[in-house]
Amino acid sequence: MNDDPVIVIVEDDPNIADLVELYLRRDGYRPYQASTGERALQVIAERNPELVLLDVGLQGELDGLGVCRAIRAESDIPIIFLTARDAEIDRVLGLELGADDYVTKPFSPRELVARVKAILRRSSGTASAAGRPTPIDLGWDLVVDPGRREVTLAGEPIALATREFDLLHYLA
After folding, report:
1. Do 141 and 112 fall into the same domain?
2. Mean pLDDT, the chain, whole residue set
3. What is the pLDDT of residues 27-72, one digit of tens each?
4. Which domain holds residue 101?
5. Which CATH number covers residue 81?
6. What is the per-residue DSSP string for 88-157?
């Protein structure tokens, strides 16, 4: 069995995806590619990756932001956005949606691999879809679910920004 960390590359430009895959393989990772949002969710479910590299501007029905939302509904897998969008509002939105880092194109493949290593070092491999933490019942019908990054009150979800959720989870 191969213990190399699995990384899913979600990128619709095959040249970029192949280049990123080459650099990740050289550093001992097992990368898998997906070129659409729909395929990305399939590969993530099949491979249970330690990290996802996600192009925000995917073509098709499910863009990168939609993929990020779908991942966050199920898991706390680290996500690094890869995108040509470099406006501050795009970076802030991406991070608030749950991305762990935001890299603008063009980028240095070596720097990207360094960012992957740093995030995996911080996450220590605990954020996989299979190993989700159990929900925390705070009483008063208030439940914090760190695996889904969701808070419910009387069974109804409460919309929270990333930092608000993180603070509530920390205090729980």
Report:
1. no
2. 88
3. 999 999 999 999 999 999 999 999 999 999 888 889 998 999 999 9
4. 6-123
5. 3.40.50.2300
6. HHHHHHHHHHT-SEEEESS--HHHHHHHHHHHHHHHTT---STTPPPPEE-STTEEEETTTTEEEETTEE
| pLDDT higher than 90, residue 18 | yes
| 22 and 51 belong to one structural domain | yes
Token pair of 85, please?
A: 């969008």
Q: What is the mean pLDDT of residues 145-158?
A: 86
pLDDT at 161 > cutoff 50 = yes
One-letter amino acid at 57 equals G
* Residue whose structure tokens are 């935001």: 102
Q: In what order do the strands lie in the sheet with 101-104?
A: 30-34, 6-10, 51-55, 79-83, 101-104
